[in-house]
Amino acid sequence: MFRVSLYVCVAALLVLLVPLQAAPIYTEDFEGATQTVDWEQNTGESPLDLNVPFQATLPADWIYGNDGWGLTSGWDVISLQPYAYQGRSFHSWAIYDSHKAASPTIFLNPGRYRLSFWLRMGGLRPLDGNPGGATWVEWGILKKENGLSDSQPGAPGWSKPPITQGNFMDWRQFTVTFDIATAGEYRVGFKVGSVTPLGVYANVDNIVLEREGVALSGVVTLGDYGGDYTRQSVTVQVLNPADHSDVKDVVTVPLASDGAYEIASLNVAAGTYDIALKASHWLTTIVRGVTIPGGTANATLRNGDVDGDDEVTLFDFGELVAAFGSVPGDSNWNPEADLDGDEEVTLFDFGVLVSNFGQIGDQ
What we know:
This protein is mostly beta strands. Helix content is 10%, strand content 39%. The N terminus is likely disordered.
């Protein structure tokens, strides 16, 4: 019995020593995409039929194109290849010379990110290893509204210099880091080119995007508020999803000018939790099913909770009446009654309270 107990204790200790791994924000291994090449007409030069275009369905919401004829989605001259390398099975898109492809949009908060992917590149046909001309590949983090354009204002953009260049290169994994300055919708992109106008290509597979060194982050929108976000903070509670009275950790953090917040570490085990967000005169909003570490909890908070009891009631109305007409420095000034953040308590604040009257915070 003692020996079994000792083994259990050692096993538990080893589990505790394993570093927590953040859940990826986005992954793509291209499984399940549909190959449309006619295999029966194979010429023998390649496992694919060279008499028809290499075609496959793009994964949902991917975009593909070049500067000459714009963006398309669905069908194009790309190929899906089952390919084995060092015991790994790949189903890989071939992006051809002067073409670009980009992932579905991904919401990213400000901070540092790590992107890893497998890459293979070479010459005229995807499976024959023909070196062709000197090939180069760029990765990119693209703003949604910029599409696949070479110009990417407000985004990290395309990598300069290219991630790799040369002739044929067999499968190799790359890992890069980048910073996001402004929260928004972004895409992960790849671009292929060559020194000579030959049919060069690059295969991309097993894409993983992760946040670096953050337990939890998000963007809070303060409802009915036009004031300075940097003067506000948000209290973050990590809740047991099965019992919200079981609070695992509580942290109060300042907001950035765009409402972004970031928590470097939390005193909880890795797992999935519900996250409660509460700011001073706003009601609690609960975001469910957030993975920690590395998760994101974004929310819009409802205004009007002057007395901070997580309800908008006649008590809040009374507090606002007591502060009505005041500005900072007045004896009856109450910053919690300045609901719209304009540095005075007016009928506009009454309007905010009335619009949310009777509401309570998420439980």
